């Protein structure tokens, strides 16, 4: 699977996570958070970190990354 397919599959739930976290930050909007999550996913994709993980695990990793961003 290529990264674009991987991202397309996760994108709706990833956008929901960024909308949920949008209220916690006054200087970021949901688009900034989404972009940061995509960069996080790209870096993990390149290293193979999520190759054998479930979608739930990957989204939880994105959530924690954005909470600590």
Q: Provide the succession of SSEs.
A: HHH
- Helix/strand structural class: mainly alpha
Oligomer: single chain
How many angstroms does the end-to-end distance come to?
28 Å
Globally, the shape reads elongated
Q: What is the beta-strand fraction?
A: under 5%
Largest sheet: none
**Fraction in helix:** over 70%
Please tell me the overall pLDDT.
87
Radius of gyration: 12 Å
Annotation field: number of helices = 3
- Number of β-strand runs: 0
Which spans have pLDDT < 50 for at least 5 consecutive residues? Answer: none
Plain-language structure description:
This protein has 69 residues and is an all-alpha fold. 72% of the residues lie in helices and 0% in strands. It is built from three helices and no strands. It starts with a helix and ends with a helix. 13% of the residues are buried. The model has no long low-confidence stretch (mean pLDDT 87).
Provide keyphrases for this structure.
single chain; 69 residues; mainly alpha; elongated
């Amino acid at each position: 699977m290529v990264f674009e397919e991987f991202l397309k599959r996760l994108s709706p739930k990833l956008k929901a996570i960024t909308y949920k976290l949008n209220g916690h930050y006054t200087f970021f909007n949901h688009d900034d958070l989404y972009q940061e999550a995509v960069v996080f996913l790209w870096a993990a994709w390149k290293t193979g970190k999520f190759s054998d993980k479930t979608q739930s695990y990957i989204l939880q990793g994105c959530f924690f990354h954005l909470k600590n961003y």
